[in-house]
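Deliverable D4.2, example record:
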Amino acid sequence: MICKMEHVAIMVRDMEQSIRFYSETFGFNVRLRGNKLDREMVFLYLEAQPDMEIELIQEKTGATEYSETGIVNHLAFTVENMEETIQFLKEKEIILPSEQVKPTLEGGRMILFHGPNRELLQLIEKVK
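Output generated by the structure prediction step:
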């Protein structure tokens, strides 16, 4: 079902400052940088562990309220087959806010839902 842990997403106020911090302090490299209508996203990786990333998200609208205790946006996992995984979640009586699968920046597919403590979880099916 789940292949691997994908990334942890962090909400940031200043994208350039955040990239410098993770790059200069911990040695992360930028793998991908992109924009959607309402947000900018950057994916960072370590050369020693390239398959686990940090996603930085900066809202363009300013509508997001930032909190010192709630800046982790979501936890993402890679799945092999989105439809099978959605069916599995339904069988486990996990409620999906929407069954609409959305595109990722890299052309894959993703869906969001909540865990038992209202933590936001994301499933990603990569482009094959």
